[in-house]
Amino acid sequence: MKLGIVGLPGVGKTTLYNALTGSKAETGGYMGASAKPNIGQAKVPDERLDWLAEYYKPKKYSPASIDFVDVAGVSKGTGRGNSVLQNIRQVDALVHVVRCFDNASLFPDPADARSDAETLELELILADIEVVERRLEKARKYLKAGDKKYKHESEMCEALLAHLSDGKPARSFAFTDEDKDILQDGGLLSTKPVIYAANLDEDGMADYRNNAQFRAISALAEEQGAAVLPVAAKFEEDIMDMEPEDAQMFMEELGLTERGLDRLIKTSYELLGYISFLTAGPDDVHAWTITRGTKAPRAAGKIHSDIERGFIRAEVVAFEDLKACGTMANAKAKGLFRSEGKEYVMKDGDIVNFLFNV
Ligand SMILES: Nc1nc2c(ncn2[C@@H]2O[C@H](COP(=O)(O)OP(=O)(O)OP(=O)(O)O)[C@@H](O)[C@H]2O)c(=O)[nH]1
Ligand SMILES: [Mg+2]
Question: What digits encode the pLDDT tens for the residues 118-151?
Fold first, then answer.
């Protein structure tokens, strides 16, 4: 699972990236169009895994993770032919960072979150126009050469181009399943799910519900069916290296019970339809990422292809059942351990032991 961090220049993308992944990438540098993207991993916080680690005292603790790709800011008017955006064509979703703070030394103008977000989206649409134009050109060429297969593709590209040229994102275009297959490898940016990260300063964060910029971006997100979360990127980056107790104290001052980043990570996970099943024992407690609806053998394949191939059945107990019982032995005695077959659809928080034979 991979998320791309996008936004206008200097709005705090790399600051957020550092806080998410524990990296130390340079900030405030105005990366410029030629700069390489930052790529790093964030762990998905999971209280269930913490409970299991307490129970088993395992040698290894293996939470699920998400990859983040942080690219240079995209300025107004540079979406077309933008090489920076090539680096995020294949991500699953976008984290769109929007400035909801004022800082006269960095930005002469006060924050205007809605207008900024719309500006950036338009650049993504312009970048997509270029991709579709190329596609159309190719389809027309094949069609002209007599390959009728490309008739539908060229018509669809024409309609999509008209849609994009109206300033509308590709996600609101009525694609058929066949169209989606055709465009799959193109990686259209404006079809990707968006999570707006409203980047606030500490004062803004302390009362974000009443922050005018946060409200503006929330309204836009609601119109678009996108997710929105308040983050204080600079603050989160600052507390990253503190002792946990100190960080906790600073968070409490802002009325935060959880790091904004943890919520961002969890929201991304849910938005994309991901769930975790767990394996647990004295060697390793491990969260494995699957999409909702995955059946047991396919899930087993996440661990090892042999387990999928030789799948016999799965012994499953729901985490909440185990927790309520206190111990594995109790859960077994109460009959909460189930034996499930090939057709079983995995649920979030299932603790599983796969039986297999190869
Ligand atoms: N006051 C304030 N400053 C911030 C905040 N977030 C980032 N900054 C500052 O803004 C500057 C730019 O931050 P970056 O994280 O490098 O921004 P960016 O979006 O990655 O910038 P580009 O990659 O150049 O587009 C740095 O000096 C940060 O310290 C914030 O929440 N509040
Ligand atoms: Mg940056």
Answer: 999 999 999 999 999 999 999 999 999 999 989 9
- Rounded to two decimals, the pTM is 0.89
Cα Rg, the chain, nearest whole Å: 23
Which structure tokens are listed for 122?
A: 């338009």
Residues 105, 227 within the same domain: yes
Could you tell which of 5, 15, 208, 261 is best to mutate to test the pocket of ligand 1, judged by most ligand atoms within 8 Å of the CB?
15
Tell me which residue has tokens 């991304």: 268
Residues with Cβ within 8 Å of 173's Cβ and at least 6 positions away in sequence, in order, are: 159, 160, 163, 164
Tell me the backbone φ, ψ of residue 316, rounded to 5 degrees. -130, 135
Domain co-membership, 199 together with 213:
yes
Domain, as residue range, for 182: 124-190
Beta 311-318 vs 350-356: how paired, if at all? Answer: antiparallel
Query: Would you state the pLDDT for residue 62?
Result: 96
Mean pLDDT of the region 83-111 = 93
Count of domains for the chain: 3
Instruction: Specify if 282 maps to a domain.
Output: no
Query: Hey, what's the torsion of the CAs at 179, 225, 115, 98, to 10 degrees?
Result: -100
Instruction: Identify whether residues 250 and 323 lie together within a single domain.
Output: no
**Same domain (yes/no): 251, 241:** yes
> At 52, is the secondary structure helix, strand, or coil?
helix
User: In this structure, are 305 and 206 located in the same domain?
Assistant: no
Q: Which of 5, 16, 27, 76 to mutate to test the pocket of ligand 1 (most atoms within 8 A of CB)?
A: 27
163 shares a domain with 259: no
Q: How far does the centroid of ligand 1 lie from the alpha carbon of residue 227, in Å? A: 22
Q: Which residues of 230-262 are buried (b: 16+ CB within 10 A; e: fewer)?
A: bbbbbbbbebbeeeeeebeeebeebebeebbbb
